[in-house]
Write a structure and sequence with these properties.
By secondary structure, this protein is α+β, with helices and mostly antiparallel strands. Among the domains are: 6-159, Beta-Lactamase, CATH 3.30.450.20; 268-417, 2-Layer Sandwich (Beta-Lactamase); 425-594, 3-Layer(aba) Sandwich (Rossmann fold), CATH 3.40.50. 53% of the residues lie in helices and 16% in strands. The chain is built from 22 helices and 24 strands.
Length: 734
């Protein structure tokens, strides 16, 4: 609203006073001037009337009307102030100065009251013109009445000019007065305006200003001094309140953040995910982003280091020293980088001038530490670092549970790996578990073992496992591939020969049986030996005795015979290609190796084993299989069994460009036959396909129900329903 300020109100009041005074003076002066003019005009009218009366008396008495008329005309011409003249006697006009005759209303407008006195009257014409009409008796009224009219227009113009002059003078005086008043009011109200502006800024929350006025003994000076003192107290009080509010807000934010982080960490699947999540959250709190988490195992002999980009596991004296160092720290501390073994921290910490350490404890036991690398221009403040200590205290329980969970998983994996790997054999399929148990049972004995199975199923590995588990493990293990020698040379290779036994036998040679004395002989592809060799082999199996080719001396050996073949020896016996008595001598303990297509659960396990082996050997980056590549491995029929799988993984490891084996890295023949197999299987029922898919995904996810449900795109409850429907359970490992 207008005129709210004191300055405006003062200006308005003083201006109204000046203007009112000027108007009042002008009105009074004009009225007096107008009254003076009216009196002057009345006097003039009386003088003119008396003068004309004297001249007109003689002419009227002599009845010289012509002279009378001329005299009136002369008076009109000689005196511009006269507007009209006429003489009336007994209601007759004797003479007049009107061109169109005397107006009838004008005759009655003014009349002398007595014959010896005149009458002055202000009259107004039909055109609005004002006149001062004088009715002057001539010769005491006996000769008639002189009527003289003076126009008021000249006098009105004089009054108007006076008004204009007075207005200009008043306006000038007003402007001068306003200028003086403005300076005076501004000088008087400036301190008050500054105080008012300061009060408004204080009301808006800006307390950094200060009123700088020359303080004096007057009221304004005292008010300014008191205002500044009051403002100082408000500033101090406000600053203390803001500091307290900031402290409360910071504490509330820290508590809320720590509880939110603790809640999120509780839902993470493993220790690595917990540490990475913790690092990324803390990076949003402090400016230093190089962080690492050290977590000790329950028995304090292993240290898990996790940064944002790398993971490491340490053991040994370095871990023991770190446990002692962090256990002795009391709360957050800045340390020099040479105070701990730099092997425990990432390479990014090498360039740091110092580190901030936050020991993590759970139930008064050292759990690990959070490390933050601080460069030379570190701008972290203690308040920011306090929240890290609070968060670590809130999340220590979750970290401890993650450590325990990680150790349990590692123990379970170790048990599975121990069960899945047996003396060089890899597989956790129940069929393989039966073979492992059979090997454990027959290895301590000297019983002959016949290992049958398709090519590439690992028959030689079974033979080696039996030898390693036997009492002969320190003795030779001699492998003889019976299909690699022609019939004429096989006997010499098996039994040896004397010098001159045949053309080219220039010296005596010990056979493989003789070389393996005390150990184990593995006869691979036993179904390929000739009938003559079969007879001699039968004798060795019966009596452990033989003669060299071309020799007469009977040699005795102490050997164990293991044999393997990819043929059906029983059919060979029926077709008279293999001696029946030798078959029964060899088939004391039969072991049937399952083809890889009948134990598809082991394909991911074997594939990962071969990938680790060839990635290290070939120095490639490949570490895992993409889901599409693993799907193709599981769908392939593997006619070449484990040997073909091994060659395919080596092919993929060499061609892989990144950390994952993609479907394009697999051999083309495998992809072609997989597509053919898929077309052949497309005719199978939906139920069979669904059951097979469930088994494949569960095996791929190591029977992790949550991961399998996520990969299948269904809920866990739906997955459990399907498991009950198809009666699917995880195979029991013995």
């Amino acid at each position: 609203m207008r005129f709210q300020s004191l300055k405006s109100k003062l200006l308005l009041a003083v201006s109204a006073l000046v203007i009112g005074s000027g108007l009042l003076i002008s009105i009074l002066f004009t009225q007096r001037y107008s009254s003076s003019l009216y009196q002057s005009m009345s006097v003039q009218a009386q003088n003119l009337s008396h003068s004309i009366e004297l001249e007109a008396t003689d002419k009227i008495l002599t009845n010289d009307l012509v002279a009378l008329q001329k005299m009136l005309d002369y008076q009109m011409r000689s005196n511009n102030s006269i507007s009209y003249l006429f003489i009336v006697k007994e209601n007759q006009i004797l003479a007049h100065t009107f061109t169109d005759g005397v107006p009838l209303g004008l005759i009655r407008a003014n009349q002398a009251a007595r014959n010896d006195s005149f009458a002055l009257k202000e009259i107004k014409s039909t055109f609005g013109e004002k006149y001062l009409d004088t009715a002057w008796p001539i010769f005491a009224g006996k000769a008639g009445v002189l009527r003289l009219g003076l126009s008021e227009a000249p006098y009105t113009r004089q009054v108007t000019q006076l008004w204009i002059q007075m207005g200009a003078i008043t306006f000038g005086i007003l402007l001068l007065a306003l200028a003086v008043i403005l300076v005076f009011v501004k000088r008087i109200t400036r301190p008050l305006s500054m105080l008012a502006a300061a009060a408004e800024e204080i009301d808006e929350g800006r307390l950094e200003m200060d009123v700088t006025l020359k303080e004096g003994p007057d009221e304004v000076g005292i008010l300014t001094s008191s205002f500044n003192h009051m403002l100082g107290r408000i500033k101090n009080h406000t600053r203390r309140l803001e500091e307290k509010n900031a402290e409360i807000d910071r504490a509330h934010k820290q508590t809320r953040t720590s509880f939110a982080i603790a809640q999120e960490i509780g839902a993470l699947p493993n220790l690595k995910a917990v540490c990475i999540y913790l690092i990324r959250k803390l990076q949003g709190i402090v400016t230093c982003e190089n962080m690492a988490v050290l977590v000790f195992s329950s028995n304090r002999d292993t240290c898990f280091m996790q940064s944002e980009i790398e993971s490491r596991i340490y053991t040994g004296e370095t871990v023991s020293a770190a446990v002692i160092f962090f256990r002795d720290l009391n709360g957050m501390q800045f340390i020099r980088k040479n105070q701990i073994d730099l092997k425990l921290v990432p390479e990014a910490f090498q360039s740091a001038d110092q580190m901030v350490t936050f020991p993590m404890r759970h139930e008064n036991q050292i759990l690990g530490a959070m490390l933050i690398a601080c460069p030379g221009n570190c701008s972290c403040v203690t308040n920011e670092l306090d929240i890290i200590d609070l968060i670590l205290n809130q999340t220590s329980g979750a970290i401890q549970r993650s450590v325990s969970h990680e150790e349990e998983i590692r123990e379970l994996k170790h048990r599975i790996e121990v069960t899945a790997e047996f003396s060089g054999l890899i597989g956790k399929d129940p069929k393989m578990q039966v073979i492992y148990k059979l090997i454990e049972d027959v290895a301590p004995t000297d019983a002959t073992v016949l290992i049958q199975g398709e090519s590439g199923t690992g028959k030689e590995l079974v033979a080696r496992a039996i030898h390693k588990q036997s009492q002969r493990r320190e003795k030779p293990f001699v492998v003889i591939n019976c299909s690699a020698y022609p019939a004429t040379l096989l006997e010499s290779e098996l039994f040896g020969h004397e010098k001159g036994a045949f053309t080219g036998a220039i010296r005596q040679k010990a056979g493989r049986f003789e070389q393996a004395d005390g150990g184990t002989v593995f006869l691979d592809e036993i179904g390929e030996i000739s009938p003559t060799a079969q007879i001699k082999l039968l004798r060795i199996l019966q009596s452990q005795k033989f003669e060299r080719l071309g020799g007469e001396q009977t040699l005795s050996v102490n050997i164990r015979v293991l044999a393997a073949t990819n043929k059906d020896l029983l059919k060979e016996v029926k077709s008279a290609n293999f001696r029946e008595d030798l078959f029964y001598r060899l088939n004391v303990i039969p072991i049937q190796m399952p083809p890889l297509r009948n134990r598809r659960n082991d394909i991911p396990l074997l594939a990962r084993y071969f990938l680790r082996h060839f990635a290290t050997e070939q120095e490639t980056l490949a570490q895992r299989f993409s889901s599409e590549a693993m799907r193709n491995l599981l769908d392939y029929s593997w006619p070449g069994n484990v040997r073909e799988l091994e060659n395919s993984i080596e092919h993929a490891a060499v061609l892989a460009k990144g950390k994952y084996i993609e479907i394009s890295d697999l051999p083309a023949s495998l992809l072609l036959r997989t597509e053919t197999g898929e077309r052949a299987r497309s005719s199978r029922s939906l139920v069979e396909n669904e059951r097979k898919l469930l088994m494949e995904v569960l095996e791929e996810c190591d029977w992790n129900k949550k991961a399998a449900a996520h990969q299948l795109g269904i809920s866990r409850s739906t997955l459990y329903d399907k498991l009950r429907k198809y009666q699917l359970t995880r195979p029991t490992v013995h």
